[in-house]
Amino acid sequence: MLKQVKYKEFEIFYYDDKYMEVAKKIIENDYKIIKILKDTKRNYVSAIEIDENNYIIKEPRNEYIIPQRKLMSFFKKGEALTTLINVNKLIDFYDFKEYARPFIAITKRKNRMIVYSLLVMERIIGEEERNLKILVNLMEKIHKKGFYHGDFNPSNFLNSNGKIFILDTQGKKMFFGNYRAHYDMLTMKMDSYKEMKYPYSKNIFYYFALFVKKIKKLPLIEKIKKYKKNLREKGWKI
């Protein structure tokens, strides 16, 4: 059962009581940074140590830096809490043991909008899984249960001593037909494995997903994305 506790100006969400103290130490900055994995205007990810236990912390900064996303957080749980709930459900209810488990979500709101958000997850040590058949088969199983990844590429799958772990997903459910299933598979095929044999029948949702992918790859769109990234690095909130 999901638990919620107020600590100072933060809301802490967790399932297991032992993580309450972990959350407090993170809020108090009472931890050791082992390695910073990403540190940009939009995202921060690092491996940390608390009481000889290792964790991954992820701060989705774009959720409160980009004005339209911050405004939408008025109506939403937020990325950290959504991930905590969805992925634990996928592991415990749907028996997908391949997901890296999230332990804690920490949020801070002002005027009911998120101004700070942090997700605490288990740390997986492994190598990027590059076996296309393994990846596609696993994603097909997830799609059959009505869920999708959102960024289906090899960098989000680790092989740890022969066991595959899925990273960097909110574990959301599909609602618009199987559009998201097609988008996942097209992401893998177009971005990582052009020789990949497409596993699904091509319906209207396939062609819509293909259209969206191709639009995003247009030189003008790529140029706009690069321009926006440069502005963000200069401090613009877009």
Automatic annotation (TrEMBL):
Instruction: List the protein's name.
Output: Lipopolysaccharide biosynthesis protein
Name the InterPro entries for this protein: Kinase-like_dom_sf (IPR011009), LipoPS_heptP_kinase (IPR009330)
Q: Give the species this sequence originates from.
A: Fusobacterium simiae
Short name of one Pfam family: WaaY
